[in-house]
Fold:
Amino acid sequence: MSENVWIVGIQMTKFGKHKDKDVLDLGAEAALGALADAGLTMKDVGVIGAGNLIGDSGFGQLLQKQIGQTGVPVYNVANACATGATALRVAIMAIKAGETDCGLAVGVEKLAGAGLLTGNAAQDDTDWVRRGRFGAVAPLDGRVGTETMPGVFAQIGMEYGHKYGGADFELFAKISEKNHAHSTLNPKAAYQKAMTLEQIMNDVMIAYPNTRPMCSANCDGGAAAVVVSETKLRTLSLEQQRRAVKISASVLTSDPWQEACQVLPDINTLTRQAATTAYEQAGIGPDDLDLVELHDCFATAELVHYDNLQLCEPGGAVDFFRSGAPWRDGKTPVNVSGGLQSKGHPVSATGIANIWEVATHLRGEAGPRQIADAKVGLAHVIGLGSACGVHILEKAA
Structure:
């Protein structure tokens, strides 16, 4: 059996507008921060997984010139919104294959000021994601009937409500209200402002039932993680070992084959299969989770992912939310960071940033938003390409 892999260093920049920093500046800030957090340097790193969608295709090699060019293999990855999680899997797999005992994963994006990313949304200047070349760029047809990310996820949420009942405009807005409330305690979030239900529901409609505050926010940011083998971990200081976070599961899936259609994205099956495999790898169940960071690119997406990640019984996502479970003080806190709707969504950084949030709670370092006695958490990210990454993390014993 291959060795366990541990996060010993992790960092994310503050998400938001960084007019004075380019992609390499943000990537270097995250990478050097993660190395400092680990108490290691570039000479310890044996492989780099680098994720960036908009910049140079050789982003990883350019980053090395900023932080230390040591000749190690660099894998540049692009996997829609799952890019950061995929970069991390590159480092994890290299360690499990025995090629190195230490890897660095980095994801970074510059999206602030990108403006409208769809052709037919309300024509106002905004930093909110409407569409994405990072998502549904292939032509879509059939029952989904749209090629825009807001349209796809809006209809997925409406379909869930039609099938199981109870999911209406107000309920979706309440999910967004929760996440904006959570963001007020996260100093790294792009937006740290609570919003009332009325403000959310009366804002610009993007794709019914998602208004602007219910959509993920365009912003700049980077995130990075340093991972090591268990053998390497034992050579580190007792304090480093105490703060280490075990990666109990690391899973990446794509759309399964379906007789009905090979074109339309299958968000639900994609995520459910990833979650099922992750729980099996980790040897736990959904009830063991102390917190979850899931990919709430839209409020409608968060609702269906309660079900897909098996946080509730099939068809029970509405009751799960209404029970108060996903609030910070609930049974299964979801998106304590504020989620993509408030924390922001610099696409390639998001997968590692979600992991940063979970790891920070497991270390007991989340400050006023800390989930008490957090021992196990799940980070989820989805790219509409399609790709789904699920990581389960555990606190060091």
Summary: The first strand starts at residue 5 and ends at 12.
